Amino acid sequence: MEPGAVPDRKVILGVQAHPDDIDFSSGGTIAAFVKQGHEVHYLSVTSGNKGTHDRSITPEKLTEIREAEEREASRRLGVTACYFLRWNDGELEPNLTLRAQICRVIRQVRPHTLLTFDPWRPYQLHPDHRAVGIATLDAAIAARDHLFFPEQLRDGIDIARVHEIYLFGAAEPDTWVDISDTIAMKIQAASAHVSQIGDDLTGREERTRARSRAIGEPRGLAYAEAFKVLHLN
Ligand SMILES: [Zn+2]
Fold first, then answer.
1. What does the domain layout of the chain look like in residue ranges?
2. Ligand 1 center to 47 CA (angstroms)
3. pLDDT digits (tens, 9 = 90+) for 107-138
4. Which of 37, 119, 126, 150 is deepest in the core (most CB within 10 A)?
5. What's the CATH superfamily of 11-231?
6. How far away, in angstroms, is 21 Cα from ligand 1 center?
Protein backbone atom coordinates (compact mmCIF):
# COMPACT_ATOMS: atom_id res chain seq x y z
CA MET A 1 0.00 0.00 0.00
CA GLU A 2 1.21 3.51 -0.81
CA PRO A 3 2.21 5.54 2.24
CA GLY A 4 -0.82 7.51 3.35
CA ALA A 5 -3.24 5.51 1.18
CA VAL A 6 -6.52 4.51 2.74
CA PRO A 7 -6.90 0.73 2.93
CA ASP A 8 -10.02 -0.84 1.37
CA ARG A 9 -10.83 -2.58 4.62
CA LYS A 10 -10.21 -0.30 7.55
CA VAL A 11 -10.01 -1.44 11.14
CA ILE A 12 -11.96 0.94 13.38
CA LEU A 13 -11.72 1.05 17.18
CA GLY A 14 -14.45 2.82 19.14
CA VAL A 15 -13.49 3.75 22.71
CA GLN A 16 -16.34 4.58 25.08
CA ALA A 17 -16.85 5.25 28.77
CA HIS A 18 -20.05 3.20 29.14
CA PRO A 19 -21.49 0.31 27.16
CA ASP A 20 -24.00 2.35 25.13
CA ASP A 21 -22.21 5.63 24.37
CA ILE A 22 -21.22 4.66 20.83
CA ASP A 23 -24.47 2.88 19.97
CA PHE A 24 -26.52 5.93 21.03
CA SER A 25 -24.25 8.58 19.49
CA SER A 26 -22.82 6.84 16.43
CA GLY A 27 -24.64 3.55 15.85
CA GLY A 28 -25.73 4.50 12.33
CA THR A 29 -22.14 5.32 11.38
CA ILE A 30 -20.83 2.07 12.88
CA ALA A 31 -23.39 0.09 10.84
CA ALA A 32 -22.44 2.09 7.73
CA PHE A 33 -18.73 1.32 8.30
CA VAL A 34 -19.55 -2.40 8.57
CA LYS A 35 -21.71 -2.28 5.42
CA GLN A 36 -18.76 -0.71 3.58
CA GLY A 37 -16.69 -3.77 4.53
CA HIS A 38 -14.75 -2.29 7.44
CA GLU A 39 -14.03 -4.08 10.71
CA VAL A 40 -15.17 -2.44 13.94
CA HIS A 41 -14.05 -3.17 17.50
CA TYR A 42 -15.40 -1.63 20.74
CA LEU A 43 -13.47 -0.87 23.91
CA SER A 44 -15.63 -0.01 26.97
CA VAL A 45 -13.60 1.54 29.78
CA THR A 46 -16.30 0.98 32.41
CA SER A 47 -19.11 -1.53 32.23
CA GLY A 48 -21.56 1.09 33.47
CA ASN A 49 -21.79 -0.61 36.83
CA LYS A 50 -23.44 2.38 38.58
CA GLY A 51 -25.96 3.18 35.86
CA THR A 52 -29.24 2.25 37.51
CA HIS A 53 -32.00 3.67 39.69
CA ASP A 54 -32.91 0.15 40.81
CA ARG A 55 -31.67 -0.22 44.40
CA SER A 56 -31.88 -4.01 44.28
CA ILE A 57 -29.18 -4.46 41.60
CA THR A 58 -25.53 -4.81 42.70
CA PRO A 59 -22.71 -3.26 40.65
CA GLU A 60 -21.46 -6.79 39.87
CA LYS A 61 -24.85 -7.84 38.50
CA LEU A 62 -25.13 -4.59 36.53
CA THR A 63 -21.71 -5.25 34.96
CA GLU A 64 -22.99 -8.60 33.73
CA ILE A 65 -26.24 -7.14 32.41
CA ARG A 66 -24.63 -4.21 30.64
CA GLU A 67 -21.83 -6.20 29.04
CA ALA A 68 -24.42 -8.65 27.70
CA GLU A 69 -26.53 -5.75 26.39
CA GLU A 70 -23.48 -4.27 24.67
CA ARG A 71 -22.53 -7.60 23.10
CA GLU A 72 -26.07 -7.90 21.71
CA ALA A 73 -26.29 -4.26 20.56
CA SER A 74 -22.91 -4.38 18.83
CA ARG A 75 -23.76 -7.75 17.25
CA ARG A 76 -26.81 -6.06 15.68
CA LEU A 77 -24.48 -3.46 14.14
CA GLY A 78 -22.00 -6.05 12.88
CA VAL A 79 -19.19 -5.20 15.33
CA THR A 80 -16.39 -7.80 15.38
CA ALA A 81 -15.34 -7.73 19.04
CA CYS A 82 -15.99 -5.97 22.38
CA TYR A 83 -13.36 -5.45 25.08
CA PHE A 84 -14.04 -4.28 28.65
CA LEU A 85 -11.51 -2.65 31.00
CA ARG A 86 -14.01 -2.71 33.93
CA TRP A 87 -13.08 0.50 35.66
CA ASN A 88 -15.74 1.76 38.07
CA ASP A 89 -18.45 3.85 36.47
CA GLY A 90 -18.16 7.53 37.41
CA GLU A 91 -14.59 7.32 38.69
CA LEU A 92 -12.52 7.78 35.53
CA GLU A 93 -9.60 10.15 35.35
CA PRO A 94 -7.36 10.71 32.33
CA ASN A 95 -4.35 9.25 34.15
CA LEU A 96 -1.29 7.35 32.92
CA THR A 97 -2.70 3.95 33.94
CA LEU A 98 -5.77 4.43 31.76
CA ARG A 99 -3.66 5.89 28.94
CA ALA A 100 -1.41 2.81 29.01
CA GLN A 101 -4.36 0.42 28.96
CA ILE A 102 -5.97 2.12 25.96
CA CYS A 103 -2.56 2.35 24.26
CA ARG A 104 -2.14 -1.41 24.68
CA VAL A 105 -5.49 -2.09 23.00
CA ILE A 106 -4.65 0.33 20.15
CA ARG A 107 -1.35 -1.50 19.63
CA GLN A 108 -3.14 -4.88 19.60
CA VAL A 109 -6.17 -3.97 17.45
CA ARG A 110 -4.10 -1.63 15.19
CA PRO A 111 -6.97 0.58 14.03
CA HIS A 112 -6.75 2.90 11.03
CA THR A 113 -9.55 4.94 12.62
CA LEU A 114 -10.38 5.70 16.25
CA LEU A 115 -13.80 6.91 17.35
CA THR A 116 -14.35 8.52 20.75
CA PHE A 117 -15.78 11.51 22.65
CA ASP A 118 -14.86 15.07 21.84
CA PRO A 119 -13.22 15.89 25.20
CA TRP A 120 -13.17 19.60 24.42
CA ARG A 121 -16.89 20.01 24.03
CA PRO A 122 -17.80 22.91 26.30
CA TYR A 123 -19.96 22.08 29.29
CA GLN A 124 -19.40 18.33 28.91
CA LEU A 125 -20.45 17.45 32.43
CA HIS A 126 -19.88 13.71 32.65
CA PRO A 127 -16.38 13.14 34.07
CA ASP A 128 -16.11 9.71 32.40
CA HIS A 129 -16.86 11.17 28.96
CA ARG A 130 -14.21 13.85 29.38
CA ALA A 131 -11.68 11.39 30.78
CA VAL A 132 -12.12 8.80 28.03
CA GLY A 133 -11.86 11.40 25.26
CA ILE A 134 -8.59 12.77 26.66
CA ALA A 135 -7.09 9.38 27.58
CA THR A 136 -7.90 7.92 24.15
CA LEU A 137 -6.31 10.81 22.25
CA ASP A 138 -3.26 10.67 24.51
CA ALA A 139 -3.06 6.90 23.99
CA ALA A 140 -3.13 7.31 20.20
CA ILE A 141 -0.10 9.60 20.44
CA ALA A 142 1.73 7.25 22.83
CA ALA A 143 1.02 4.18 20.66
CA ARG A 144 3.21 5.53 17.83
CA ASP A 145 6.54 5.59 19.62
CA HIS A 146 8.47 2.67 21.04
CA LEU A 147 9.76 4.48 24.10
CA PHE A 148 6.25 5.10 25.38
CA PHE A 149 5.09 2.22 27.57
CA PRO A 150 8.09 0.09 26.49
CA GLU A 151 6.91 -2.79 28.68
CA GLN A 152 4.22 -3.38 26.05
CA LEU A 153 6.90 -3.95 23.40
CA ARG A 154 8.65 -6.35 25.74
CA ASP A 155 5.34 -8.25 25.82
CA GLY A 156 5.66 -8.67 22.05
CA ILE A 157 3.23 -5.87 21.07
CA ASP A 158 4.51 -3.44 18.43
CA ILE A 159 3.89 0.29 18.01
CA ALA A 160 0.79 1.32 16.02
CA ARG A 161 -0.19 4.41 14.08
CA VAL A 162 -3.76 5.73 14.02
CA HIS A 163 -4.55 7.74 10.87
CA GLU A 164 -7.85 9.41 11.68
CA ILE A 165 -10.00 10.09 14.73
CA TYR A 166 -13.78 10.57 14.67
CA LEU A 167 -14.96 12.61 17.66
CA PHE A 168 -18.65 12.22 18.49
CA GLY A 169 -20.68 14.71 20.49
CA ALA A 170 -18.41 17.23 18.78
CA ALA A 171 -18.46 20.93 19.62
CA GLU A 172 -17.49 21.82 16.04
CA PRO A 173 -18.49 18.99 13.68
CA ASP A 174 -17.00 19.03 10.19
CA THR A 175 -18.12 15.62 8.88
CA TRP A 176 -21.68 14.38 8.37
CA VAL A 177 -22.26 10.66 7.86
CA ASP A 178 -25.42 9.69 5.93
CA ILE A 179 -27.22 7.11 8.09
CA SER A 180 -30.43 6.96 6.05
CA ASP A 181 -29.74 3.30 5.22
CA THR A 182 -28.66 2.34 8.74
CA ILE A 183 -30.86 4.33 11.13
CA ALA A 184 -33.13 1.28 11.56
CA MET A 185 -30.08 -0.73 12.65
CA LYS A 186 -29.09 2.03 15.07
CA ILE A 187 -32.56 1.95 16.64
CA GLN A 188 -32.44 -1.86 16.81
CA ALA A 189 -29.03 -1.76 18.50
CA ALA A 190 -30.06 0.92 20.99
CA SER A 191 -33.09 -1.14 21.97
CA ALA A 192 -30.74 -3.88 23.27
CA HIS A 193 -29.76 -1.56 26.15
CA VAL A 194 -32.88 -2.49 28.08
CA SER A 195 -31.43 -1.54 31.48
CA GLN A 196 -30.87 2.01 30.22
CA ILE A 197 -33.90 2.82 28.11
CA GLY A 198 -36.72 0.91 29.78
CA ASP A 199 -39.63 0.01 27.56
CA ASP A 200 -40.41 3.35 25.90
CA LEU A 201 -39.12 2.07 22.57
CA THR A 202 -41.55 4.04 20.43
CA GLY A 203 -40.79 7.37 22.09
CA ARG A 204 -37.09 6.65 21.87
CA GLU A 205 -37.30 5.78 18.18
CA GLU A 206 -39.16 9.02 17.47
CA ARG A 207 -36.54 11.06 19.35
CA THR A 208 -33.67 9.31 17.56
CA ARG A 209 -35.27 9.93 14.16
CA ALA A 210 -36.02 13.58 15.00
CA ARG A 211 -32.46 14.23 16.19
CA SER A 212 -30.87 12.49 13.20
CA ARG A 213 -33.17 14.36 10.84
CA ALA A 214 -32.25 17.70 12.43
CA ILE A 215 -28.54 16.89 12.05
CA GLY A 216 -28.96 15.75 8.42
CA GLU A 217 -31.38 18.36 7.14
CA PRO A 218 -28.98 21.30 6.64
CA ARG A 219 -26.72 18.91 4.67
CA GLY A 220 -29.54 17.59 2.46
CA LEU A 221 -29.50 14.18 4.18
CA ALA A 222 -32.60 12.41 5.49
CA TYR A 223 -30.73 11.19 8.60
CA ALA A 224 -27.16 11.87 9.70
CA GLU A 225 -24.63 11.71 12.54
CA ALA A 226 -22.02 14.47 12.85
CA PHE A 227 -18.35 14.25 13.87
CA LYS A 228 -15.20 16.28 14.12
CA VAL A 229 -12.57 14.28 12.23
CA LEU A 230 -8.87 14.69 13.02
CA HIS A 231 -6.28 13.48 10.51
CA LEU A 232 -2.89 12.28 11.74
CA ASN A 233 0.02 11.50 9.48
ZN1 LIG B 1 -21.76 7.47 28.86
1. 11-231
2. 10
3. 999 999 999 999 999 998 999 999 999 999 99
4. 119
5. LmbE-like (3.40.50.10320)
6. 5
